[in-house]
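The step that takes the researchers longest sounds almost clerical: writing a folded protein down as plain text. The outcome of that step, for a single protein, is printed below.
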Amino acid sequence: MAMLILLVLLIFFAVLGVPIAFAIGASCVTYIQSSAPTFISMIPQRIWNGVFSDLMIAMPLFMLAGEIMNVGGLTRRLMNFCEELVRPINGGLGEVNVVASMIFGGISGSSVADTSALGSIEIPSMVDAGYPEGVSTGITVASSTMGMIIPPSTAMIVYAMISGGSVGALFMAGAIPGLLIGITQLILVYVMSIKNGWHPKHRKFDATRFKERILGGLPALLLPLFIIICVSFGICTASESAAVAVFYSLFVGFIVYRELTWNHVWTALKKSFICSSSIMIIIGFTTIFTWVLTMQGIPTLVAEFFMGLNMPKYGVALIFVILILAIGTFIDVSPAILLLTPILLPVMHSYGFSTLQIGAIMITGLAIGLVTPPVGMCLNACNKITGMPVIEIFKHAFPFLMCNFITLILISLWEPLTTWLPLLMGYSLY
């Protein structure tokens, strides 16, 4: 009954147009005030406990590093680097789009940041090269979902905080699924390019140009590699590697590329502050929500319900996938992780799923929600760039999203895709 009341209140406030964070907080406060008013005084402490974590330091710092690299000349050089890599391939700019998202996702850790930063350059370039605007936009939003999966990932950091899992292990758990999505999207772009005649302009190979573009992109590429190595091998914590990433991005921007100014840094600071603050507010209010559900014994009831179904493991996996996809359609990634993890993690553990596999399934599924209406944050970001209706963007992105869906099914049914690499690095599955 408690869950039903909370959900009704949450939907009510959301329909009124209340932002999701405050909708969650308002529903909880309303419920507590009506059923257990003595607990009202504990709300500030619960909010503080929800955001007081060393891992939370890493999230805004990774965002800041990505923003600094973006304003410091990374995006243009990254595009040039990727263009040289795929220069002779059919559908060159479409391939560039996907490869750039794979790399940039490992820098920003955010799919929305990927869409905003790369989309403003990629979409006009593809349209000028003869690609339909819808296709250009569809590839951009679909490929940007890898930013949520390929390490470092802010979503993985949030999940690690709630689940108690290792950040390094979760980064490794997301690496193969992210690469699978990227490879399958590259194949699809290649096939569609041959079918529709999307070919790059043939130009004579210029060794000097090639050398300049490759060397120009290497400093940016070293950042995600450095983060992955440091966190995975225990050289430093996620928070420490995020701080180093900020200093490295400043060094590259000021010294190497020499395009970064203090005005750019101030702009990056403001953007990172606003974005990370909104996530912190969501985390704080969601902590109250999960606390109320726990007090009412909801996780235990959900576990008993699933155990009572007496379903095989694969059947539970498919139900889990459907639930994640449905919730991701209406709720953004961070609040969805915060709401679902405390409830579903014990259930999935009871069926033999590891913490790493659960995290990979959850984040891969929720990443699809970033490109599905009505919430679809990446759709809205692309809408601001092109002016195309959200539904139209989704239609063109759908074929490429099937790559995400296939990968999601594979990692749900075959655990080694998410656990082989962490185990190879010496991590525990739980």
Remarks:
- Residues 55-200+207-424 form one domain.
- The longest helix spans residues 262-295.
- Residues 123 and 136 are 5 Å apart (CA to CA).
- The mean pLDDT is 80.
